[in-house]
Design goal:
Pfam families: Aminotran_4. The protein is an alpha+beta fold. The chain has two domains: 8-171, Aminotransferase class 4, branched-chain amino acid transferase, N-terminal domain (D-amino Acid Aminotransferase, Chain A, domain 1, 2-Layer Sandwich); 182-348, D-amino Acid Aminotransferase, Chain A, domain 2 (Alpha-Beta Barrel). The chain is built from eight helices and 19 strands. It has helices at residues 18-24, 67-71, 94-107, 115-128, 204-219, 266-277, 289-298, 335-348, and strands at 8-9, 33-34, 37-44, 48-56, 74-76, 79-83, 89-92, 140-149, 161-171, 182-186, 224-228, 236-239, 243-248, 252-255, 281-284, 301-308, 312-320, 326-327, 359-361. Strands 1, 2, 3, 4, 5, 6, 7, 8, 9 and 19 form a ten-stranded mixed β-sheet that branches. Strands 10, 11, 12, 13, 14, 15, 16, 17 and 18 form a nine-stranded mixed β-sheet that branches. Strand 6 and strand 7 form a beta hairpin. Helix 3 crosses helix 4. The longest helix is centred in the middle third of the chain and has 16 residues, at 204-219. The radius of gyration is 21 Å and the shape is globular. 41% of the residues are buried.
Amino acid sequence: MADTLDFGFHPNPDPMPADERAERLKDPGFGTLFTDHMAMVRYTEGKGWHDAEISARRALSLDPAAAVLHYAQEIFEGMKAYKQADGAIALFRPEENARRFQRSAERMAMPELPEQIFLDSITRLTEVERDWIPPQEGGALYLRPFMFASEAFLGVRPAKEYLYLVIACSVGSYFKADAPAVTIWASQNYSRAAPGGTGAAKCGGNYAASLPAQAEAIEAGCDQVVFLDAAEKRWVEELGGMNLFFVFDNGEVVTPPLTGTILPGITRASLIQLLRDEGLTVREEPYAFEDWRKDSESGRLLETMACGTAAVVTAVGTVKSADGDFTIGTGGPGQITRKMRDRLVNIQRGEAPDPHGWVKHIG
């Protein structure tokens, strides 16, 4: 079975007019302004990956018995293409997305997409859609690779046919530009993942299960929800879509460990390296919710950072729960949060040296 494929290109016969696109790029929002094209590859058991193409973004036709609709075999990734200071376009650590996509596929009993096909699909689509990158600060092309079981059958077994696609949308800031820090709700009624489950896979079911807790957060006036471990409801795990870091007054930083219930974030891994580059000690170890409260109230904990592809790095200012609220530091971004965000963003956008070779230029 082929590890590489040639992508055919079929231009959209009715693309968005350039003047309309330019107007909409002034305020693209997040996740609603989609580009003209998409990438698609098919998989058939016994034949492997085939029929790779870049073509017009369009609606899909699915049989009502498609396995994804009944047994939720589906995975996805999230990543961004950035315009560099010199006008070139670049991706940030795309090979890590490709490898995580493979790990997610393995967990969900799906065929693993070869790394080079993944990289070629996002590279080709970005080249075609480069004019969709918003010009303003914080603008990027958000890429959504995803795969689902398309075989029509009713029976509990791994499917034999799959579709892999990449769609793209123009995006600005994930959170409101005037929000210096986010407020989060500590969920005590819901769990995101349990040991032995799918917490380390980037699959839609994990996010669907988190939505009632996110609804609680919104009702409580919060931006995001933080989940505790399923077994003891004691240990901090992650937000609905971001990893967490805790910065202490002794120069140490703690982040919850990857034990199978937390998504191994690429931004998380990058922050661990950048913090260590700064000479800070980073420990991957459990951190109790009650310690989070006590350390915030005593002043021992200076900052809490949330990180992910969409939001990059943002400060957590206030934590709310049914047992009362607490504020971290001044309630706004601290020195380390601001520094790490600037360092990461500047590397991604080619405005600072890239000592670890994370940025991949594509023209």
